[in-house]
Amino acid sequence: MKDLTPTVTTGPLPASRRVWHAGQRHPEIRVPMREIDLHPTAGEPPVTVYDSSGPYTDPEAEIAIDRGLPRLRAGWIAARGDTQTYAGRAINPADNGFAEGTRLVPEFPLRHAPRRATQGRAVTQMAYARAGIVTPEMEFVAIRENLGRKAQAEALARDGESFGAAIPDFITPEFVRDEIAQGRAIIPANINHPEAEPMAIGRNFLVKINANIGNSAVTSSMAEEVEKMVWATRWGADTVMDLSTGRNIHNIRDWIIRNSPVPIGTVPLYQALEKVGGIAEDLTREVFRDTLIEQAEQGVDYFTIHAGVRLHMIPMTVNRVTGIVSRGGSIMAKWCLHHHRESFLYEHFDEICEIARAYDVSFSLGDGLRPGSIADANDAAQFAELETLGELTQIAWAKDCQVMIEGPGHVPMHKIKANMDKQLQVCGEAPFYTLGPLTTDIAPGYDHITSGIGAAMIGWFGTAMLCYVTPKEHLGLPDRDDVKVGVITYKIAAHAADLAKGHPAAQIRDDALSRARFEFRWEDQFNLSLDPETARSMHDETLPKEAHKVAHFCSMCGPKFCSMRISHDIRAEAQKDGMARMAEKFREGGRLYLPVEDKA
Amino acid sequence: MKDLTPTVTTGPLPASRRVWHAGQRHPEIRVPMREIDLHPTAGEPPVTVYDSSGPYTDPEAEIAIDRGLPRLRAGWIAARGDTQTYAGRAINPADNGFAEGTRLVPEFPLRHAPRRATQGRAVTQMAYARAGIVTPEMEFVAIRENLGRKAQAEALARDGESFGAAIPDFITPEFVRDEIAQGRAIIPANINHPEAEPMAIGRNFLVKINANIGNSAVTSSMAEEVEKMVWATRWGADTVMDLSTGRNIHNIRDWIIRNSPVPIGTVPLYQALEKVGGIAEDLTREVFRDTLIEQAEQGVDYFTIHAGVRLHMIPMTVNRVTGIVSRGGSIMAKWCLHHHRESFLYEHFDEICEIARAYDVSFSLGDGLRPGSIADANDAAQFAELETLGELTQIAWAKDCQVMIEGPGHVPMHKIKANMDKQLQVCGEAPFYTLGPLTTDIAPGYDHITSGIGAAMIGWFGTAMLCYVTPKEHLGLPDRDDVKVGVITYKIAAHAADLAKGHPAAQIRDDALSRARFEFRWEDQFNLSLDPETARSMHDETLPKEAHKVAHFCSMCGPKFCSMRISHDIRAEAQKDGMARMAEKFREGGRLYLPVEDKA
């Protein structure tokens, strides 16, 4: 089968090096960051940025997709002494939708024995945090969030409106521990996904983004999905959700997890539904449970669980313009309606928690009743479910399970903040994880933009992770280009949110890029941008010559009209004359030359 | 010369017809709108949307670029009896940058004698409004803003947060008159551009967008610019600014204006600078005045005037990260610095007003000191200039001149609202017209998105017109594709703002599209979108067959996972059973099936 060993995109981004910062409490940890070198004429140190790309951007790393990434957390997990390996659940044909022969995606070549908690223990980061333990994962995250700052003293002057978020000037491992213990942040880190580099999702950390990938019954293959995962993290995806729904779902997921440097999320209901032939009403607690264990053993880091859809809420959706638009939500609603009872997810959520705590699978409590149109935003169904998600959060926390809460959807701008406020209030400050929201329904083909607007705003208001939307939303499955556009758009939204919240390090990159722009360091401008390739190629469309990259003007205005160039003349003149004296002279001048309104 | 008669894009958008609504006070006026027909199965009337595209989308219209558009306002203007035609200023070689021979763009073939006010009268819409006159332009705008609604009773339930804007349920001609008289709105409508269809820019009307076109010394030709203008209005640009700076500036502008159905704005300083060989300090009051008259006679509808840059403000920019980034601002700053005096624009602004009132050229008071980076947002220089723009507004209003105020720029989200609040406060509620703002500096190549976020927000807060930013911002001159992406992005921002402000008709299109989506009317979904071509082609990438356009699922989820389809089943089941009874049963059920937390 030609797809046996997929090739993926590797190599550093322009002028960039992957560097590592060592831990202090845990000297063995090496926290990756990206340093972007500037032109020598800048006289500035490299700019350090967050790096979600994993070993793929490290030219020294040996990448072998059929072996998977190094299992960097394996030793940390084993050292805790609270887990053991075991044989694991046998893979059966239903796990791959009964795909056979050449239609069956081959198994991942290596099988690692799964690990789980011994004796019903909770092996979650939350359990450790509550016990006062600062895990290597927590220190890793603390270092990562500081973006290379070494101490509080290096923080920028703070400027922002955080709406109650409290991001410290400098993140300590103890701060991370406390946030996890309080449930205000999570580190999605299944003990069976030791390849992932720990990251935090919480209102008091950098805003994160998620990219969705996954095949469907209609299209897409394993090699494409693995490359989409690598590609998405290259451009900045902090987590990836595998939303596959077709055949081969088990094997494709294995290839993705073994090669993923970021946490992987899934919606286990999709696979459970495949196992019962796509008939929602045939779903059972047992099939679902089996699927959770299957995926927990593979290493899925967070599960979307649509346990908030309750029977009495379904009539609330009947007069909606767009009914129920969440796949998981509609499946569960159909089940509830058919059996005329509460869903097994809701009734047996404690059982689901038992599984999650044994592997440290985090919950992403799904918003099955999220609005699918402007007309349906913030309605009774949506908020009723949100309140139930708040109840479920307490149940999960009682079991030391890590929780985040999913949010909408389609919401006009004036109704966005109410979503954040209500979520904080009813879900005990568990991290919010929203899809967009889309601020209008009228632009299919541009829903990365309709939703990027809403994402930036809700990120500012306090959402911890933004689920990307690609240009293909509502129209088709995203290809590699769509994934990139979606990721870059959401990096913009997340960064705009960090700036507005007043994150102490967010503006460093803006300032470095703007200085490069003002000083006509074109290469630095490209290299510091979120997408150096696109910036460079757009510049070169009009002024392709290498000489133009040192030109003190660009194609928009040409040399005569270049405001930046004139600004330099002004600055030079001002400095020649002495700034203070000049200002004084101008103030006199202002009185000598009588302005129009003084004459009137 | 091959460019003699450019061809432009014509023909209706899919399923769309251009329709006209007649005036009541002025029965001769015909206000264009676009009606989008829906599939018969919808059982819904056509959706009426605002139409800025002019006759180009009307298959009945005879388009001849070398004759120009019909001069629809000619009779209205003449009938007022306060203007006269005259010989006009002679065109001289400097007007076209001394281009000669084959390098000279030919003159527009028809020369219409220019018209100006008799005996120093003010022939502005503001003067008429203050005199209590409801002009045909005002009634045209009233009908246009209502989007085909015939009476207040047809208004939707209002829902929004308008931050003090007061959009009535139904716009009357008298309301328009009052808004113009108060200076809260403008109708940019030079008496020498009778081809344009009147439109309003004001906080209590639909949010408008502007598209910039124009050649530079480096690139671009006349035919391209005319097509860019037609293309931009096809996708929704409400006004177009011609920012040309190269040779042939006069002749290209003539071709653009004679064929433009929307108001045309310029920055006369650019041409004035060409006339003095590009040396800022050689600019004079006389050259500038001559340029204003030249452009007023051609029919430019609004002038950006950078009269707010004052001598004492220049030192305030010296320590900025990006100095002065407005071309006009930097030119005037250089002039002030060189001559060490206040600019002739500021000192003789009353003289500029005399010209503007004789032709009804509106002012767009330029923000020459707008911030060019996040670091420089909302600084002393920016706000000092804004206060001066407030002074100038009063001077212009005293002469019955129409005014709008330009705004930034680069502004992080938490500093956006302060811009709007301060503008309203110091500029007497004159309409605000902003460029973006860009909410981060780190994404060249995607600045339509970084700025679309800010534009949607500031539009919501009260900005009347949003100046688009294309993906090429900071990198190169936009081509036709960039213009379209910029326009669509800004239509999204403007529409998201209308929704959030609670415009009484804004949600009609969202609801129609969402109903189409829910009912799998794919064609309607495409046709109702801002860019039907792109929506259709993205859908067809995955599911190209015609049969799939009636399919009750799409490529994202496939048939089994289609939430919309399941929602229909749910709705059917609910209706079968009787909604109220069902809800009652569910409430009982909710008590029978004991949920998890009740057991605890």
TrEMBL record, chains A, B:
Which HAMAP family does the annotation name? ThiC
What name appears for this protein in its UniProt entry? Answer: Phosphomethylpyrimidine synthase
UniProt-listed PANTHER family: PHOSPHOMETHYLPYRIMIDINE SYNTHASE, CHLOROPLASTIC (PTHR30557:SF1), THIAMINE BIOSYNTHESIS PROTEIN THIC (PTHR30557)
Domain of life from the UniProt record? Bacteria
Supply the EC number(s): 4.1.99.17
Functional note: Catalyzes the synthesis of the hydroxymethylpyrimidine phosphate (HMP-P) moiety of thiamine from aminoimidazole ribotide (AIR) in a radical S-adenosyl-L-methionine (SAM)-dependent reaction.
| Subunit details | Homodimer.
What the entry lists under InterPro entries is as follows: ThiC, ThiC-associated_dom, ThiC/Bza_core_dom, ThiC/BzaA/B
Question: What residues does substrate bind to?
Answer: 212, 241, 270, 306, 326-328, 367-370, 406, 433
Q: Name one GO biological process term.
A: thiamine diphosphate biosynthetic process
* Pathway it works in: Cofactor biosynthesis; thiamine diphosphate biosynthesis
Which Gene3D superfamilies does this chain map to?
6.10.250.620, Radical SAM ThiC family, central domain
Query: Native species of this protein?
Result: Ponticoccus litoralis
Q: Which GO terms describe its cellular component?
A: cytosol
Q: Which NCBIfam families match?
A: PRK09284.1, PRK13352.1, thiC
Q: Where along this sequence does the record place binding of Zn(2+)?
A: 410, 474
